[in-house]
Amino acid sequence: MLFNTISDFLSYSKTYGFSKRSLEVLSSMLKKFAEHVQSFNIRSIREITYKHLLSFVISGKPSAYTIKHRVWSLRQFFQYLKNIKSVKGNIALKVPYPQIDKKEPDFLTFKELKIIINYFVSSADSPTGMRNFIIVLFLIFPGLRISSILNINIQDINLKTSSLLVTEKGNRKRIIFLPQILCSFLYPYIKSQERDLGPLFLSRQNKKISHRTIQHIFSQASGVLGFHICSRIFRHTAATHLNKIAGLDVTKFVLGHRRRESTQRYVHLNPDVYAEYMKRHPYINLTI
Fold it and tell me: Which residues of the chain are modeled with pLDDT < 70?
């Protein structure tokens, strides 16, 4: 009974705009929830209580992130049940999210960025090397997510206006403007493709490249350069350095965040602004 309802919910979620990753989490967590509830001999969805939800959320000594995924999945599912009038209210809203210690995100210095750029430039004389170099430029300047970069089609780029139609999480679309340095490399790269449609970045098998390919590229680079690089650290770096000169609102737009709070998690305290503030601190010249 519960498995069938979960299956209906997952089908509904695919049309509602959830990302691929969100659908995977929902499917995994809710199937485990259905298996867990079976031990209580429940005959109707209306018999499920807050205690049953809490029992599932903390079962098996889960990590804080697993608990977070379980709570989120239950809240989405029971909201669906409420909407179709299978239950009176969303009892999953009472289940609290875990407290997760926020880790300060790493970011690259200008020196490290220059080292990375030089590394990728050194192999940009081949089609694959140029492809990898342009991917890195998309990470460094606009700070795009890897998923957005992999979804770029040639027809999404307008070099006359230096603009790009970006597809974000949840299939949201928006237009961003590209720096001229990026466009100067994009022009010959696109011209060499000898096509006007389809994915911008292809594998050697002429298929759209995958996340695994990107991971392999950065793993190789990390081994040569002697420090760890990944797609997320580029996004943190783009946000941190952009915030220094443009402020939080512009940074929020470039990163494609809906809420300011999301952007604040990516940026570090601007050391230049802080240093200037300390120079003007009213007690800075206090004699002791």
Answer: 1, 100-105, 241-288
Residue 65's CATH number? 1.10.150.130
pLDDT at 278: 42
Nearest partner of 256 among 106, 161, 153, 142, judged by Cα = 142
The last residue of a domain, from among 55, 70, 94: 94
Q: Which domain holds residue 147?
A: 110-273
Q: pLDDT at position 168, please?
A: 78
Whether residue 53 is contained in a domain is answered as yes
Residues 242, 268: Cα–Cα separation, whole Å: 11
- The alpha carbon of residue 165 and the mean position of all alpha carbons in its chain are separated, in whole angstroms, by 17
Cα–Cα distance measured from residue 251 to residue 167, given in angstroms and rounded to the nearest whole number: 18
Cβ 260 vs Cβ 254: under 8 Å: no
Instruction: Verify that 58 and 11 share a domain, yes or no.
Output: yes
Q: Cα–Cα distance between 50 and 239 in angstroms, integer?
A: 40
Task: Give the model's pLDDT for residue 142.
Answer: 80
